[in-house]
Amino acid sequence: MKLLRVGAAGAEKPAALDAQGRIRDLSALVPDLTPDWLAPERLRALAAIDLEQLPLVDAGVRIGVPVAGIRQFIAIGLNYRKHAEESGLPLPAEPIVFTKAITSLSGANDDIVLPKGSEQTDWEIELAIVIGSTARSVAPADALGHVAGYCLANDVSERHWQIHRNGQWGKGKSFDSFGPVGPWLATTAAVPDPQVLDMELRVNGEVKQASNTSDMIFPVADIVSYLSQFMTLLPGDVIVTGTPAGVGLGMKPQQFLKKGDVVELRIDQLGTQTQRVV
Ligand code: ZN
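^ thats the input. predicted complex w/ zinc ion below
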C-alpha cells in the first residue's frame, strides 16, 4: 500500500494511491497518518480498505510529508561503496550516524530554500526507512519486522556548515526545507526487498546520481538493528540510509545548487520528487 498526506503545509489530509495510481481521500476513515497508524495490525486494516469507494483527490494537490508527528529524523553517512570512494574516505567499519532537525522535513515537491549566503548546497538521493513499531535491541533478522515502509528522500546538505564549521554533520543538514520525504510511504508489503531498488537524481535534466540500493554497505536490516542497540526507535521515526556516488561535493570541479535549479529524484516503487531551488 502507498500512503500519503495531501494539502497545504500544516493542513494535510491522509490519502492512499489506488491501483491506477490515483490519489484517494482517506480522511473519512483515518484522522491523520500519525505514528500509531503505522503499527502492523493498523497497516493491515488500511490495506483491506476498498480504495475505489473513496473520493478522488485532484492530482495537482500539494503533497506533504507522508507521516504526521515524526519524532526522530536520523541519517546514516557514507553508506554506499562508490560514494565513500568519491569522498576519498575509507569504508566505515560501523555505520556513521547523525541527525537532521525535525524542522528540516518538507514535502516531496516543496522548494529547496538556499540558506543565506550559501555557496555549497548539495543534493543526496536516499532511501528512507519509516519505523512501524518500537525497536529496542533487535537482531538484524528481526529488524525488518519493525519497519512500516520506505520513502524517497533528499538529504539536502550545506557542505560548508557540514564540514568547515567545527564538527557534527547535522549543522549542514538541518536547515528548513533540507528534508524532502515522500511523495508516499510504500509499506513493506509493497516493497518486500529494499535492497534491489534503482535510484536516480537529476539536476536541470542532467543525471548526477544513478545507482541501486544493492550498493549499500550496511543494508536496511543492519541499520535498524544497529541503531536499536543504543537508542529506542519509535513508530514514525525516519532514517535516511546514505547516498550513492554523484554528489556535487565529489565532482571535479565541485558543483553546487544555485537559485533556479530544478532537482528531480526517483526510486523504484517510491515515486518521484521535483524541487525548485530558491
Ligand atoms: Zn545523506
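Residues 220-230 form the longest helix (11 residues).
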